[in-house]
Design goal:
Number of helices: 14
Helix content: 40-55%
CATH architecture of the largest domain: 3-Layer(aba) Sandwich
Strand order of the largest sheet: 2-8-7-6-5-3-4
CATH superfamily of the largest domain: Type I PLP-dependent aspartate aminotransferase-like (Major domain)
CATH topology of the largest domain: Aspartate Aminotransferase, domain 2
Order of helices and strands: HHEHHEHEHEHEHEHEEHHHEEEHEEEH
Radius of gyration: 21 Å
Number of strands: 14
Oligomer: single chain
Structural class: alpha/beta
Number of domains: 2
Strand content: 5-15%
Low-confidence stretches: none
């Protein structure tokens, strides 16, 4: 009998998370004593607010949180998420529509696995967060890429979406504010796309994890709040990671029609059961509190946003539009292709990112990870000093080209 493959085709086809890989390499170099500056991971550098940590500490001493709890989430947290969703998005939902998950990634996978059958197509505007296509394919679906660029402000048009629809189209992934570009769809376009999806009869999975991180004149808008009739074919994904500097606590959620939430809860009951209770209690404190601390962090992110864009645009060969949300800059580095740095001629943004890390010890993520070669993603969720030092190194690196 021939040897069977050791790894299933389904899992072998999954690529490693490029953002986590870059972050892990940067942290390993730092641990070895190297002065690496990391722009890789989308992780606020602020500590989790004290009142949230204190709620978790108290929960650790409470025996009832040492036991299993409902797979779908603590009832009081689900209710608080429903209240918070109305407060922040104007979207009225019931606690029965909420599933608390181990971070936003599990919420996304639960949604795709619950909605998709093999061969179902999902429209995915690019640049996209690196996990979306992998999660879609793991659930048996087929991502259909809808390409955008800086000329449109990285916004997909209805005409582009319409051209990508086939009889196999089941869903659209909609993200605003965007990772990796920082693009924010204006409310009128959010509404128009929602009405288009409703007319087409397709689902929308909308990722709202960066809802509170918008700057200048940009405005966050929740699609099911603007198009209430879409609610029966809409899944909202969110979490506490970015808003409350809680990336390591691993609490996200999905909000969907009750039958979809019930089916996704059944899946989670076998995959992971409940999210860690201490983390859920911390998340309860976060979503039940006011947004004062969030606003303080946002002020810092806004300042860093302007700083990093100014420094990037001062480097010949790099052009960077001003992001309106999240905490990422997404500059084009096409002007650096074909140039030689330290004996290495770069022909792709992936090679350029590798050379920058190797030669000046600055970690960035190449555009290949987001479906758009020729770009880099830099997270400005780090200090002003590190932004300045890191961009000074990159500027010197570019100036060294032969």
């Amino acid at each position: 009998m021939a040897d069977l493959p050791r790894i299933s085709r389904r899992i072998a086809a999954i690529a490693e998370s490029a953002t986590l890989a870059v972050d892990a390499k940067a942290k390993a170099l730092s641990a070895a004593g190297r002065p690496v500056i990391g722009f890789g991971a989308g992780e606020p550098d602020f500590p989790t607010p004290d009142y949230i940590v204190e709620a978790a500490v108290a929960a650790c001493h409470e025996p009832k949180w040492h036991r299993y709890t409902p797979a779908g989430g603590l009832p009081e947290l689900k209710e608080a998420i429903a209240v918070k969703t109305m407060r922040d998005s104007g979207y009225s939902v019931q606690a029965s529509q909420v599933l608390v998950t181990n971070g936003g990634k599990q919420a996304l996978y639960n949604a795709f696995a619950t909605l998709l059958d093999p061969g179902d197509e999902v429209l995915l505007p690019a640049p996209y967060w690196t996990t979306y296509p992998e999660s879609i394919m793991l659930a048996g679906g087929a991502p259909v890429i809808v390409m955008t660029d800086e000329a449109s402000g990285y916004l997909a048009s209805i005409e582009q979406l319409d051209a990508a629809v086939t009889p196999a189209t089941k869903a659209l992934v909609f993200v605003s504010p965007s990772n990796p570009t920082g693009a924010v769809y204006p409310p009128e376009l959010v509404k128009a796309i929602g009405e288009w999806a409703l007319e087409k009869g397709i689902w929308v999975i909308t990722d709202e994890i960066y809802e509170h991180l918008v700057y200048g004149d940009a405005t966050f808008a929740s699609m099911p709040a603007l198009v209430p009739d879409l609610a029966d074919r809409c899944v909202v994904v969110n979490g506490v990671a970015k808003t409350y500097a809680m990336t390591g606590w691993r609490v996200g959620w999905m909000i969907a029609p009750a039958d979809v939430t019930k089916a996704a809860t059944n899946l989670q009951s076998h995959a992971t059961s409940n999210v860690a209770n201490v983390s859920q209690v911390a998340a309860l404190a976060a979503v039940s509190g006011n947004l004062d601390v969030v606003e303080q962090m946002k002020v810092a992110f806004d300042r860093r946003r302007l700083l990093i864009v100014d420094l990037l645009n001062s480097i010949p060969g790099i052009t960077c539009p001003e992001p309106e949300g999240a905490f990422y800059a997404y500059p084009s580095v096409k002007g650096l292709m074909g140039r030689t740095f330290g004996g290495t001629t770069v022909t792709s943004s992936s090679e350029l990112a590798g050379a920058i890390l190797d030669q000046v010890e600055v970690a960035v993520v190449p555009g290949e990870a987001f479906g758009t070669p020729g770009y880099l993603r830099l997270s400005y969720a780090t200090s002003d000093e590190k932004i300045t030092e890191g961009l000074d190194r990159i500027k010197a690196f570019v100036a060294s080209a032969s």
